Amino acid sequence: MRTRKLATLLTGAALAATTTLVAGAAPASATGPCGSSYTRVGVYAVKRGDGTRTGTLEVYYSSTTRKNCALTYGYGAYANTPSWKSVVISRGDGTGSDPDSGRYTYHAGPVYVSAPGQCIDVEATVPDWVTLKLNNVHCN
Question: Which of 50, 53, 132, 139 qualifies as a cystine partner to 119, CB 3.0-4.6 A?
């Protein structure tokens, strides 16, 4: 009898834990850093000339808004600590530029550009002397 009570108790505890985990999980439609309709379309490492990674550039696109979005995160010594972070997004022809830069703990951005039928240019800097530039990418 004691074994049956223990089994019932353990089953109940497992069910409660499972219910708690599911209830605490983020919904599938969770809003990302650019908004709920944005999907990540690119992730790029920002690296020094010697290959040491200092940051990450993320690019998103929304077919609903028809806009691209970008953010720059720190990596390694520059992650989750105040350091220079910068991101710029524009149309491939150089117009519509949206920059954001400063001494941020987590990320620069989000920044947005509407470029239907065009490519975009994006630029990320982490820290202030390490820059990644991508021209004419993510053409819509």
Answer: 139
